[in-house]
Specification:
CATH topology of one domain: Sulfite Oxidase, Chain A, domain 2
CATH class of one domain: Alpha Beta
CATH architecture of one domain: Alpha-Beta Complex
Radius of gyration: 18 Å
CATH superfamily of one domain: Oxidoreductase, molybdopterin-binding domain
Structural class: alpha+beta
Order of helices and strands: HHHHHEEHEEHEEHEEEEHEEH
Number of strands: 12
Number of helices: 10
Largest sheet: 7 strands, mixed
Helix content: 10-25%
Length: 337
């Protein structure tokens, strides 16, 4: 009899999230983080039902495009079995209609609105403390990288979770291409700022554009992943096309969408949500079941697409890969600091 010793972050199959729920992640998170009523809706489970009901209405607009995707032949990419989780994938009809993307609204049903975004042409700027600043065409960047598929868990700060098959490349490969100077300690990332597409960016009380940041050690960790696709094809716009970040051991708001700039710096960035609510959304934002959000517990999570509520794991179950990065942080500082 063959006995396999699986990594600690591999969960049972019954704990998996359906593919449909992920896409509305970011809109809902934003609404709940500032609006108590929004948070209550998410945690009660009503948001997932609304996302599933909305799936059929948006099915004709999700994933469509008015341009020729020059990377289409790269999908589906081969799955990297080192990042496979033994549980069901969240159904795409759920994850593609349940999204947090405040640029298009502070609710979960933004998938249709996100189709207004023009993802070509798209330029990635790399600047700051690098040997030479550069601007990269997104298609040329994608084709220059070795794409692979990874199955990652996703844990939202709103206490829901799902499982997504992302396609992309290691963040460390972009860092290598950027050739940062020895003094660079952090990377600040920036989302597009075009209010003609994104009505949410006309709301002046938000500090647009969306900014996020990671340490150099986090960016070069094996788990840090720059996403170009999902479900075996280029990423739908509401997922954060054409380039987003996936940091599976952190709360979802750290996984910035639709990136246009990477700035290498020796100063720790102050992120979008940290500017708005520094006592609720800190720089590190590692998943920690023992540190509650100021307005709700993080001890358990609701698995979207199922009726299950499961215990939350430290670092979302990826502690073996990342815990060493935070040895100098106290346990209660891991989330809000």
């Amino acid at each position: 009899m063959l006995i396999r010793n699986l990594p600690s972050w591999v969960l049972r199959e019954s704990a998996a999230t359906d593919e449909q729920v992920y896409l509305n992640r970011r809109n809902f998170m934003r609404g709940s983080s500032l609006l108590i009523g929004g948070a209550a809706l998410t945690l009660s489970g009503q948001g997932a039902d609304a996302g599933a009901a909305f799936a059929s209405d948006i099915s004709q607009s999700v994933g469509t495009s008015d341009f020729k995707d020059l990377t289409l032949d790269l999908y589906p990419a081969k799955r990297n079995e080192a990042y496979t989780i033994k549980r069901p994938i969240t159904k795409e009809e759920i994850s593609s209609t349940y999204n947090n993307f405040y640029e298009f609204g502070s609710h979960k049903r933004i998938a249709k609105a996100a189709q207004r975004m023009e993802t070509r042409p798209w330029t990635i700027t790399i600047d700051g403390m690098v040997e030479e600043e550069m601007e990269l065409d997104i298609d040329e960047l994608i084709r220059s990288m070795a794409l692979e598929e990874r199955l990652y868990r996703h844990r939202c700060v709103e206490a829901w979770s799902m499982t997504i098959p992302w396609t992309g490349f290691a963040f460390a490969d972009l860092v290598k291409k950027a050739k940062p100077l020895s003094g660079a300690k952090y990377i600040q990332m920036e989302t597009f700022h075009k209010s003609m597409w994104a009505s949410g960016q006309r709301q002046t009380w938000y500090p647009w554009p969306y900014l996020e940041g990671v340490s150099m050690e986090e960016a070069t960790n094996d788990l840090a992943f720059l996403v170009t696709g999902a479900y075996g094809k280029p990423a739908a716009k509401q997922f954060g096309a054409p380039l987003r970040l996936a940091l599976p051991w952190k709360y979802g708001f750290k996984s910035i969408k639709s990136i246009v700039r990477f700035t290498f710096t020796d100063k720790r960035p102050v992120s979008f949500w940290e500017q708005l609510a520094p006592k609720e959304y800190g720089f590190w934002a590692n998943v920690n079941p023992e540190v509650r959000h100021p307005r709700w517990s993080q001890a358990t999570e609701r698995v979207l697409g199922t009726d299950e509520t499961i215990p939350t794991q430290f670092y979302n179950g990826y502690g073996e890969q990342v815990a060493h990065l935070y040895k100098e942080l106290g346990k209660t500082e891991i989330l809000f600091r």
